[in-house]
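Q: Entry one of two.
A:
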Amino acid sequence: MILTTLKNQFLQELIQYDVTERNSLFFITIEECLAINKADYFLYRERELSIEQINKVAKVLSELKKNVPIQYIFHRTYFYGMSFFVNDNVLIPRQETEELVEWILRETPKNTPLQILDIGTGSGVIAIALKKYLPEATVFALDISEKALEVAQRNAKENKVSVHFLQEDILKVTHLGRIFDIIVSNPPYVRNSEKREIALNVLEHEPHLALFVPDDNPLLFYEKIAELAHQHLSKQGKLFFEMNQYLAKEMIQMLNRKGFRKVVLQKDLSNHDRMILATIE
């Protein structure tokens, strides 16, 4: 079989994805399995493939047809210019979270010895990216999941940054132990009733613990973190959240009730209310 025939077969079998995503998945697969990037494909598309090469791609295709995210298949994703190990103990980081990191970096002086806390760190992408681009900062990262923290620690080591990881259930924490200049969190925020909007590859494979909240208390993590932040932020400290696009009004009202005087809402690239910044003064 030649490469172009393999591509046609690959695209025909992934009927649950749109054409753009199918093409993207194909080029990721051949780069990982065959060391052929997208540019090389057009040079080598008439190349005859070995049985071993065909079988490698077929194995990936089989997993994709089961809606397994490609990041879990190859245990690799990319975030803010860095490579990260991922498995099904952690969420796959999204573009919106990169936008959150970009906003934090725009709002933060680079050569300042800040104290930063990332709550619900998962794979560690936020904490690690902030430490990479704010090298003078001391960064702490907290998560309830021991297995998620193992992933985050591996990623910190691979990206050669020092982050202090803590295993805690934030809903049970009463004191953070120090004052922070920045507290950031991307906690669970998808309501159970919104599951119908979630893609099958997410719904069937990514950890629900990190995704979903009860319909009758969708801000439970935000309320707890806001209370802790109000007690443990420095005078000019900042609280950043990624949030549910449908709950912007409720978020602003909650933060005002918790004592945050200035609240700034930020849209993502899809024009959804996705991020929020709150300060006490």
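Q: Entry two of two.
A:
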Amino acid sequence: MITLASGVSYTDVQFIGLPGIIASVVLHGPGGAAIIDPGPTSTLPALGADLAHAGIAMRDVRALLLTHIHLDHAGATGTLVREQPDLRVYVHEKGAPHLVDPTRLLASATRLYGDEMDRLWGDVLPVPAHTLSVLAGGERISAGGRDLDIAYTPGHASHHVSYFSADTGIAFVGDTAGVRLTPGGFNVPPTPPPDIDLEAWAVSLHRIEQWGAGTLFVTHFGPSAPVATHLSEFADRLAIVSRLAAASLARQGSDEDREAWFTDQIRRELRRRMTRYWRKRP
């Protein structure tokens, strides 16, 4: 595990055997541990091995803190609760029903991933309702030896929340602040159907900025600073993607033609910005 602050670490869960894709945060103190976004069931062996290497047994984990219920963040929740029935699971009120009954969540994911579901995610089991602590945003909780403020941060998903540790200055923001798999790389807006909301997303970014964090932690992948620069760049990327999506929908032709045009435009934008990045390097 990689240390962010005293009692705050993160681990690369080696999604599909690859590094640098999904990170789970581990808060650990004398009263036990908590995990922010445990990832999918398919990566539990790697998560368990890293915890054990740090001297933390799975039985020491007392709580799971979910930013949202997408399978890459929360797919392992039901499996972990089955193995440890006293686990406490924190989740937004709009996501809670889909943990208890994941039928619709799985149907939606299966439309995207088809026969790859098991390889990518493993089991996705129901979570008993009595294990849930249902959030609305605005709460303060204690987990893993840390006090955490919670904000409702929709945009990427209507049930997304973020967590802020004021004493460490770290904000754990899930997918709200984008996907950046390499330091200094292009920050890609994660915009899966069906419930992205650009107006709500802008409000969420402002809400995160108001925390005054020194570091953002994004699930894909890792810590990022300075925070103001990260958020500003991400807002810019989100505006670009939104503009290109609107332009593609206005084009004549088939959906396949529009998709191909949009993909080509995104590639051009990536090349342009990465060229600028490498030219700036000494």
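A: Comment on entry two: The chain has two domains: 2-226, 251-280. The chain has a mean pLDDT of 93.
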